[in-house]
Amino acid sequence: MSLTRAAIHRFRHTYRRLSPSPSITRFQFHPIPIPIPKPFHFHSSSCYSSSSYSTIKQHFAGQDDDYPTGDFHFKPVTGWNKFLVKLKMLIAFPWERVQHGSVLKIILRGQITDQLKSRFSPGLSLPQICDNLLKAAYDPRISGVYLHIDILNCGWAKLEEIRRHILNFRKSGKFVVAYVPSCREKEYYIACACEEIYAPPSAYFSLFGLTVQAGFVRGVLDNIGIEPQVEKIGKYKSAGEQLTCRTMSDDNREMLTALLDNIYSNWLDNVSSARGKKRNDIENFINEGVYQVDRLKEEGFISSILYDDEVITRLKERLQVKTDKNLPMVDFRKYSGVRKWTVGISGGKEMIAIIRASGAIRRVESPLSVSSKGIIGEKLIEKIRRVRESNKFKAAIIRIDSPGGDALASDLMWREIRLLAASKPVIASMSDVAASGGYYMAMGAGTIVAESLTLTGSIGVVTGRFNLGKLYEKIGFNKEIISRGKYAELFAAEQRSFRPHEAELFAKSVQNIYKQFRDKAAFSRSMTVDKMEEVAQGRVWTGNDAASHGLVDAIGGLSRAIAIAKLKANIPQDRKVTVVELSRPSPSLPEIVSSVGNSLVGVDQTLKELLQDLTFSDGVQARMDGIMFQKLEGYPSANPVLALMKDYLSSM
């Protein structure tokens, strides 16, 4: 195998795209593609404060208590309204018909996105999960919920939102039981909110604790002749370390340890509270390395050991369904077609707009885009302007779940959100992550709401490029440049290191970009620059810690953001409002094709995203999940190595 193909082979098998909502249970930093850069990248390292929740709560309680909680209060439908609900169900669309006494079955598995999905889209949507649980609580045809929980791929903030809605559903008096054939910490975090937990005797349980991992590729780069030249600002800016270092720095180790402590402590506290056990007992059990299902039952971690059919038999007994009859069940996707109006959940005259911003940030839509994934700056700005120019919306909520992306797009959206906030109340509601460009957007809102474990902040800059000189020598490639202008070769000459005057300009430019980001954050959060500098430095915080440092105003989910929007818009808390989703996706042909079968798409999604990044990404990046250098293929100074990599990957 040639050196070039060997290098490509290594990167192909080590590349893994990080999701917008990083997994803490198996938290890893992965190597990234190696195209040639454009100068500046805002980037968040995975670093957290080590302050405890109790300390934060004491420090933050006064400010947080100024806002309504948005807590759910179940009010049974009675009298005339009950009759109206029955009437609505009689005239409902055929796809809204549900047999009385049905159990809503929800399979929680894989990735959960914060974006609404069309009927053709695969995967799970957090807002649709929450809406289904809300509808089921009021739907007289639904007797309970049966949750199948398998390995999940989402952040802790989404888990908290799902958990909150499960507990809200239980306030209706209906049952919710969980079936967990495979269970780790995240899956159990959801399951322990249920009334009962069942597992088959052969279930895979691995409640062994949490880990944080950081991978370093400097040795790989040295072996193939690539020299990373990275410039960063902030002692917590650890992003460049995966390229420039072979081991973890002391600062990075300190902060990753604090991150792990924060997440683990939250998990222990909530699980011990849900199972009625002492925190020390939970921790001791974890440290025993128990994997036997019978031990889990003995210690009260699960209700019973049953197969799926046995759980269904038990539910039939509970609902008094004859043994020779099928348990009436309704699938999650079918139930998603039931309107809230049908089950008696109505809004009010006042309307609040929700604009969802999920995924990596791009300024314009890529020609290779295969779905509605990601934040397209131009499209989001159109939605923001529509809300600003409309008199029917009393307030707006920007729902953010993004590690960042294009810095120019982030700034343009920040400006539009600021203009919107000048005309009506704007609340930023942050899901798994709102860091770098994602937090940049949130800064434009008048009030910021985050979950306790939302990845927040990352006000910092990291940038770099690769010197491919030695790699070119190994593969026999030569590149010559004719230029005019002292700095013309700053990013064109990737076959050599920076010259002294180029390195000086490079460093000054990074300082300038960081200053702009930091100063704008200080302005947006009404802080002095010195105060903002203390919480910036490229540091990522949990929502709780961000609140204690003034980066977040309140802790909670979307329901609290709506309650605060009502407060700011002078709408009484007991008055109903109509929440209008402006980001509802329309089904595209690739989504329809992918729903039929992944094989029909013709290429693995990860590979498509890699090729898209290699070809069309441009501009300054404000990201959390890795340094994204500018890709120059298609430009006059395009790197032929990228074309070679693309051709090789496309041929597989």
TrEMBL record:
Entry keyword set: Hydrolase, Membrane, Protease, Serine protease
Peptidase S49 domain boundaries: 169-321, 420-570
Active site: 237, 436
GO cellular component terms attached to this protein's record: membrane
Pfam family name, one: Peptidase_S49
SUPFAM superfamilies found in the cross-reference section: ClpP/crotonase
GO molecular function: serine-type peptidase activity
Subcellular location: Membrane
Swiss-Prot/TrEMBL GO biological process terms: signal peptide processing
Descriptive protein name: Serine protease SPPA, chloroplastic-like isoform X1
Gene: LOC101503662
